[in-house]
Design a protein that fits this description.
Radius of gyration: 23 Å
CATH superfamily of the largest domain: CO dehydrogenase flavoprotein, C-terminal domain
Distance between the termini: 28 Å
Number of strands: 20
Number of domains: 2
Largest sheet: 5 strands, mixed
Shape: globular
CATH architecture of the largest domain: 2-Layer Sandwich
Bound molecules: flavin-adenine dinucleotide, FE2/S2 (inorganic) cluster
CATH topology of the largest domain: Enolase-like, domain 1
Number of helices: 18
């Protein structure tokens, strides 16, 4: 088992470089520098740890990012500070951890075997349950501990939403989490964090990673120019961001991809820039980053992100990936369409912008040419008189895909609707505007009235012919769409959020600080 060192000597970078590689994949696992030169780049981290590192504490429950049994922590520098992201190692690919420090469940206790307070709390409160789910719960709590998040019941609900227990329950685990509030960090723990931070600093100047093994290549350019050129040279390469979709193609569909082109280290793609008339969200911005930056100004977006997958999914999944995948049930597209966002596309040195709703053509087809990629999204400021709200309906509160997702931007004057931008997910083969409904609303009062079902249903039927599928029937989707509109109008009239989760969001403070 790798050991942790409190000295900086181990932070020396691997010097060895093999033919065909720009350099090895450079990272630390539980305090030990581990260069990788020959494992396939499409190997999942769960596979790497269990098969190649002998670290079998992380478990495989679902292999699709749902259960959290495989959770590991990834440390990166953000604004010079070490930040920890819990990720589902079953769908996180080997080279994606380049220039990071990894902690697995084997690296939580101190090297002399002294238990970490997180482990001790789980024992003391009878939260150490079966061998499948417990390692994941330990790692999620440990992520919260390292990031100094809060441990109230509401905060723990969010922190642990990506960890499932299929049998016993969550009470003892929540109580263990609550017991961690306010506990100090021991000096041995801060020392190992310093070692890891030193390693990450030393990694900052490493050249771009061009990795190849077993005939599969992985390139992680550092500039937009280099990325664009690489995609022109290799149009069949698979652009990869957080792999929360792509990881499942590999584990569930057994797809073999020959070449990956990563957005992860491209300068400027991972940041949100405030502009005079709005914000530009780089394609590689993660959902966690976006929720932190935008959730306060757009509380409904904050709430949407809180219900987007889990902490693990939000810490790797990106805004660009959620749009580029063209999914008809992706959560962000309807919200951003209603907010009148533009998508920025780039091919070589050429860039173009189009309205996000024009990007989605039909199921599985977007307005994207060969070698063209998504640089980011521009979200204009809401103009005076406009109000935005959005609602996700899914069968489960956490970690579930929407059956219907409704997003509404309404302009009102003297309590009358004068303009509207409305979009739905789950109602068509693409995220789509409800143009008939928008027209029908103009001139109506903001406050909903009795007996409006006919004209609303008529407009919705002109806009959509939803599918019957496992998530919902056509009739349910149409009824839900009407009810979401009425809920939005009622909220706009009363100024009171009408949702069960509203209090939870405020209490959790997740909009201000998420992982
Ligand atoms: C457990 C779980 C829960 C989930 N919950 C939700 C949810 O609640 N709501 C929801 O909407 N989705 C959900 N998802 C789906 C997924 O997390 C999101 O769609 C995510 O945003 C995808 O981003 P990514 O960075 O992981 O994309 P990747 O998997 O890396 O890529 C997805 C696709 O986008 C393309 N791509 C990525 N970036 C670019 C770019 N810059 N330019 C061009 N193409 C690009 C890739 O080539 C690929 O085709 C969930 C997934 C899992 C596994
Ligand atoms: S094994 Fe279930 S999330 Fe990874
Ligand atoms: S799944 Fe582990 S105790 Fe329930």
């Amino acid at each position: 088992m790798p050991t942790l060192s409190a000295t900086n000597d181990d932070a020396a970078l691997p010097a060895k470089t093999e033919a065909g590689l720009s350099r090895p994949i450079s990272l630390m696992i539980n305090g030990t520098v581990c260069p990788f030169t020959d494992l396939r780049p499409d190997s999942s981290w769960l596979e790497v740890l269990r098969r190649h590192q002998g670290l079998v504490g992380s478990k495989e429950g679902c292999a699709e990012g749902d259960c959290g049994a495989c959770t590991i922590l990834l440390g990166r520098l953000r604004d010079g500070e070490l930040v920890w992201q819990p990720v589902n190692s079953c769908i996180f690919l080997l080279p994606m951890a380049d220039k990071t420090v990894i902690r697995t469940v084997e690296g939580v206790a101190y090297e002399d075997g002294k238990l970490h307070p997180v482990q001790q709390a789980l024992i003391d409160h009878h939260g150490s349950q079966c061998g499948f789910c417990t390692p994941g719960f330990v790692m999620s709590l440990y992520g919260g501990w390292l990031n100094r998040s809060g441990f109230t019941a509401a905060e723990l609900d969010d922190l642990l939403a990506g960890n499932l227990c299929r049998c016993t329950g969550y009470g003892p685990i929540i109580r263990a989490g609550q017991a961690l509030a306010g506990l100090p960090m021991a000096s041995w723990e801060t020392e190992r964090l310093e070692t890891e931070t030193a390693f990450l600093r030393a990694c900052e100047d490493l050249p771009e990673l061009a990795y190849q093994a077993a005939g599969v290549s992985y390139l992680a350019p550092h500039t937009k120019e280099a990325f664009s050129q690489a995609y022109l040279d290799q149009p069949d390469a698979q652009i990869i961001a957080g792999a929360t979709d792509i990881g499942l193609w590999i584990t569930k569909q057994n797809r073999k991809l020959a070449a990956f082109l990563s957005v992860q280290h491209v300068e400027g793609l991972g940041s949100i820039t405030e502009q005079e008339d709005g914000v530009f969200i780089g394609a590689a911005v993660t959902h966690a980053q976006a929720a932190d930056a935008l959730g306060k100004d757009f509380p409904d977006l904050g709430e949407l992100w809180r219900r987007f997958g889990s902490v693990q999914v939000r810490s790797s999944g990106t805004v660009g990936g959620n749009i580029a995948n063209g999914s008809p049930i992706g959560d962000l597209a309807p919200a951003l369409i209603a907010l009148d966002a533009d998508i920025w596309l780039r091919r070589g040195t050429e860039t173009r912008q189009l309205k996000l709703d024009d990007f989605f053509i039909t199921y599985g087809q977007q307005d994207r040419r060969e070698s063209e990629w998504v640089e980011g999204l521009f979200m204009p400021k809401l103009q005076p008189g406009w109000r935005f709200s959005c609602y996700k309906l899914s069968r489960r509160f956490d970690q579930d895909i929407s059956a219907v997702m409704g997003a509404f931007a309404l302009k009102t004057e003297n309590a009358v609707i004068t303009d509207a931008r409305i979009a739905f997910g789950g109602m068509a083969g693409i995220p789509q505007r409800a143009k008939s409904l928008e027209q029908a609303l103009i001139g109506q009062t903001v406050s909903p009235a009795q007996g409006e079902e006919n004209w609303i249903d008529h407009a919705l039927a002109e806009d959509f012919t939803p599918l019957d599928d496992v998530r919902a029937s056509q009739a349910y989707r149409l009824l839900a769409a009407r009810n979401l509109l009425q809920k939005c109008r009622l909220e706009a009239t009363t100024g009171t959020p009408l949702r069960l989760a509203g209090d939870g969001l405020a209490e959790s403070g997740l909009c201000e600080k998420s992982l």
